[in-house]
Amino acid sequence: MIPELWMFTEDSELWANSDNATDLWSLCTNLGQEEATRRITKHRDTWFTEESFALMASEGVNHVRLPMGYWDMIETA
Question: Above 80 in pLDDT, residue 76?
Answer without folding.
Answer: no
